[in-house]
Amino acid sequence: MRITALAGGVGGARFLRGLLTYLKQRHGAAPGSFAVTVIGNTADDITLHGLRVCPDLDTIMYTLGGGVHEGQGWGRADETFGVATELAAYGAQPDWFTLGDRDIATHLVRTQMLNLGYTLSQVTAALCDRWQPGVTLLPMSDDPVETHVVIDDETAEGGQKAIHFQEWWVRLHAKVPARRILAVGAEQAKPAPGVLDAIRDADVVLLPPSNPVVSIGTILGVPGVRDALRGTRAPVIGISPIVGGAPVRGMADACLTALGLETSAEAVAGLYADFLKGWLVDDSDAHLAGQSIAGAPIEVVARPLIMRDLAATADIAEGALDLARHLGE
Amino acid sequence: MRITALAGGVGGARFLRGLLTYLKQRHGAAPGSFAVTVIGNTADDITLHGLRVCPDLDTIMYTLGGGVHEGQGWGRADETFGVATELAAYGAQPDWFTLGDRDIATHLVRTQMLNLGYTLSQVTAALCDRWQPGVTLLPMSDDPVETHVVIDDETAEGGQKAIHFQEWWVRLHAKVPARRILAVGAEQAKPAPGVLDAIRDADVVLLPPSNPVVSIGTILGVPGVRDALRGTRAPVIGISPIVGGAPVRGMADACLTALGLETSAEAVAGLYADFLKGWLVDDSDAHLAGQSIAGAPIEVVARPLIMRDLAATADIAEGALDLARHLGE
User: Fold this and answer.
1) Which is nearest to B267 in space by CA: B240, B229, B303?
2) N- to C-terminal Cα distance for chain B?
3) Among A80, A90, A127, whose Cβ lies nearest the Cβ of B130?
4) For testing the chain A interface, which of B69, B86, B106 should be mutated: the one with the most A CBs within 10 Å?
5) What pLDDT, on the 0 to 100 scale, is given for residue A155?
6) Among partner residues B86, B102, B109, which is closest to A102 by beta-carbon distance?
7) What DSSP string describes B136-187?
8) What is the pLDDT of residues A254-263, one digit of tens each?
9) Nearest alpha-carbon partner for A83 in B66, B87, B103
């Protein structure tokens, strides 16, 4: 069984770990009997202190490779901050994004390889050689795409300015209203090698509970990806990141508001209506089950969606694959 | 009094600390009454994991700025190695040069500034803004000069190969005979801004007990530097790095052998004979006092030259300045 997932950071990574646990342990699938390809969001990548940082790819790699800080869901376990302390002593900017020492080694390897001319796909494969995440991790594109957020700024010309997504997310905690969210470079970006084939040739395509705007949304913005999702024979099954009108994690509500959408499982499904076949919502959104969403033939199934532990997460993955099987019949 | 020193790493840095101690504490010089300019060797600079590392400049900066690891004489005090441990886990090469976390912050700031187009002079000044070393620290050149060492290698064409100085020094501990020592890029290098003026306009020029081949020697190899030393009105006073036929520190003997020279205070003075006016040797080399060296009019004075502590080092600096005063009379 070939499973392809589009994923952002923490939510996607945790779902994928549940998926692998389900496949290997519950389902008892032999190692060669399934292959999971993950198309990772790269639009929140950022260059800090000259280092190319790919937060979502690293979160997936660290989580599935056993190196993640479990409590926070991103970054390295047992992290230290010797470099960051010294950068602060130099007054190096930006000072609102703290890189850990262990994490910096990843960025050094990546940056050096990129500067030598390797593509982000090649770099990601090289890093995964160490981490052995148990999936094929592909960046959505080898071309730079960076999410920028337009916010009000009285001092700027026109009363608005655009800042990097990370500045909005990390420094401003997404508390300043986003007037627009732009994926700079998306129109010129090409899908990374293997991305479109992974969608077209899959048996199941999954959308983990990642941010629908700045994670899944930016992957969908790479030319060709959306068409591949519309055209694939595989059922596309999504897991709602919104439970009972609030994001399970992160600040997806602030992103949906920027798009003029309400924060609801229904609104998110509406963003995927042209290719989505199945939609898992939480029991608290059970009223959506059996209803039509955005006039599209989407099968909505309600079940517990809180990934409170690995077992619960594996259950959710099982639910998604069950729905795919049902739709494929 | 304007004092200009040409310096390598640990030996130069420790001497300079003694010099500043002498000037400020013993001599009771008012802060504005003296100015020390240090022309630092950059030929053992190396790019590691994409980071530009300037070992000699940093050793001077850390030592005079109060951040050096006192025991080893280079690198940062209270250093940690989170990044290096992870780089090893990735199998990143080279694996024979270990960078500490605190030190890496310096290299990140430097590398980012260089990549933005700042010169090494500008970068060094920016780093010194934090460290306040009490001297004006100038790189010998803003152009890249890298010392390479030719060693025997049966597998190489011609039976020899050239390796970066750091590989010979750090990985091979200078135990493999150096057939030749080359300063790659030296002929095309220009002295950094201020270097020639600092020599020409000085009241005293000092050569601390640094390696005569790969530290002082490479500075002398920058076109214009040697001529400036020959032409300056200031007496040029050197402190022998060789005591009783052996280097006080480091592996200068291996470097002198590569030049076909013996390891002696006399042989080192011979390398400077065209501009040296005064030469401090250790009491164990007292037989040289009053003798002619290389047929040049060099005044040789014997005194204790072991920098066993700051007080002893300040004494040596005092001896050098006394000799300069005597020669200037």
Assistant:
1) B240
2) 15
3) A90
4) B86
5) 95
6) B86
7) EEEESBSS--EEEEEEE-TTSGGGEEEEEHHIIIIISTT-SPPSEEEEETGG
8) 999 999 999 9
9) B103
Give the pLDDT band of residue A27 (cuts 50, 70, 90): low
Considering only CB atoms, which chain A residues are within 8 Å of B91?
A: 130
pLDDT value of position A262: 95
* SS3 annotation, B81-120: CHHHHHHHHCCCCCCCCCCCHHHHHHHHHHHHHHHCCCCH
B87 inside 8 A of chain A by CB: yes
Residue pairs spanning A and B at CB distance below 8 A = 93
- Work out the average pLDDT over A214-236: 98
Question: Contact B5/B39 with Cβ under 8 angstroms?
Answer: yes
Say whether B82 and A79 touch across the interface (CB within 8 A).
yes
Say whether A108 and B51 touch across the interface (CB within 8 A): yes
Amino acid identity, position B78: D
Q: Output the six-digit token pair for A126.
A: 């090289």
β pairing state of A2-7 and A35-40: parallel
Identify the residue whose tokens are 């030996």.
B11
Asked if B80 and A85 come within 8 Å (Cβ–Cβ), the reply is no
The span from the CA of B39 to the CA of B43, in Å, is 12
What mean pLDDT is predicted for residues A166-181?
94
A25: amino acid identity, one letter: Q
Contact B109 A92 (CB under 8 A): yes
pLDDT at B293: 86
pLDDT, tens digit (0-9, with 9 covering 90-100), for B250-276: 889 999 999 999 999 999 999 999 999
Query: Reduced to 3 states, what is the DSSP secondary structure of residue A192?
Result: coil
Domains of chain B, residue spans: 1-145+187-329, 146-184
Tokens found for residue A29: 């699938």
Q: Model-level pTM?
A: 0.94
Residue range B48-66: average pLDDT? 98
Given B80, B89, B115, which is nearest A50 (Cβ)?
B115
Which of B87, B102, B115 is the closest to A108 by Cβ? B87
- Gap between the terminal Cα atoms of chain A: 15
> If you measure CA to CA, which chain A residue comes closest to B115?
A50
Q: Residues 12-51, chain A: which have Cβ within 8 Å of B?
A: 49-51
pLDDT (0 to 100) of residue B27: 66
pLDDT at B75: 97
Query: B1-145+187-329, what's its fold?
Result: Rossmann fold (3.40.50)
**Is B91 in contact with A130 (Cβ distance < 8 A)?**
yes
Select from A50, A85, A104 the Cβ nearest to the Cβ of B83: A104
Q: Cβ B90–A105 below 8 Å, yes or no?
A: yes
Interface membership of A66 toward B (CB under 8 Å) = no
Concatenate the DSSP letters of all residues of A268-320 into one string: HHHHTTTT--EEEEEGGGGGGTT--BTTB--EEEEE-----SHHHHHHHHHHH
Question: Cα A245–A246–A247 angle (5° rounding)?
Answer: 135
CB contact under 8 A, B109 and A101: no
Establish if B72 touches chain A: CB-CB under 8 angstroms: no
Give the pLDDT confidence of B296-325 residue by residue, as tens digits: 899 999 999 999 999 999 999 999 999 999
Question: Is it the case that residue A10 has pLDDT exceeding 90?
Answer: yes
Separation in Å, CA A280 to CA A153, A255, A306 = 39, 21, 12
Provide the residue count of chain B: 329
